[in-house]
Amino acid sequence: MKRVVREGFGGTGPGAITPDGCAVELYARLPAQGEPDVIASAVPAGARLLELGCGAGRVTRPLVERGFAVTAVDESPEMLERVERAAGAATVCSPIEVLDLGERFDAVLLCSFLVHSGDPGVARGMLEACRRHVSGGGCVILQREPYDAHTSVPRTRDVAGGTVRIASSTPVAPGVRRVFAEYEFPDARWTQTFLSRPLTREAFEAALAGAGLAVDAYLTDDHVWVRAVPAG
Q: Looking at residue 87, what is its pLDDT?
């Protein structure tokens, strides 16, 4: 598969860097932080899941361990190597926005704030991929940015023996911000630059509607986690 180039995205540090600036070695050491609990509470036990943008499998593995049948999708072959090694899930190497597997799943997962892609066409394509792959009685689980994601900056948190710092969020185009993140560990340092498009609740729901989806429930009080269903 031809490598995708994501304009405005980049990263530095040891190991392979994905088209959207993620460091494979970094993401392989980051643990899940409650995502599997939210997902498991919102979908039927043993459901067939399509995980879009699975990265190195930090969410994939706990979902497989809980008995879900997961098909994991990522555009990075290096990320998928980690998934296959650690999680044992079926994997597909593809950009999300062009994915068409010709099958439908009980639930489709679009986590890691991917719905906020800085390119509206890519974001729309991702949502259309969700709609294309969800069964008629199924659901889509999405993770949104917190409302203060671009105002509570800089901010720092400790994770997996290291420090994650969102250093800046700068407007670069109408409705689009460039975010710079730093990851400091005793043995390595990584950075990532990515583009994000903040969405109000109204804009988010309108984007869903444009892809043939509708909010079924906000799963957390902060509205970060959402369950959507096919509209109509």
A: 72
Q: What is the token pair recorded at 59?
A: 């969410």
Q: Which of 49, 121, 51, 64 is nearest to 92 (CA)?
A: 51
Provide the residue ranges of all domains of the chain, joining segments of one domain with +.
Answer: 22-147+198-230
Domain 22-147+198-230 has CATH 3.40.50.150: yes
d(CA 95, CA 33): 25
- 10-residue averages of pLDDT along the chain (232 residues): 73 95 96 96 97 96 96 96 86 97 98 96 97 97 97 96 98 97 98 98 98 98 98 86
Bond prior to 95 in cis (omega within 30° of 0)? no
- Comparing CA positions, the residue from 91, 134, 89, 84 lying closest to residue 109 is 134
The pair of structure tokens assigned to 41 is 């509470």
CA-wise closest residue to 84 among 99, 71, 97: 71
Q: Is the dihedral of CA 171, 158, 60, 76 positive or negative?
A: positive
Q: Which helix (H) or strand (E) holds 113?
A: none
For the entire predicted model, the pTM comes to 0.95
pLDDT of residue 7: 86
Report the alpha-carbon distance of residue 10 to residue 1 in Å, rounded: 20
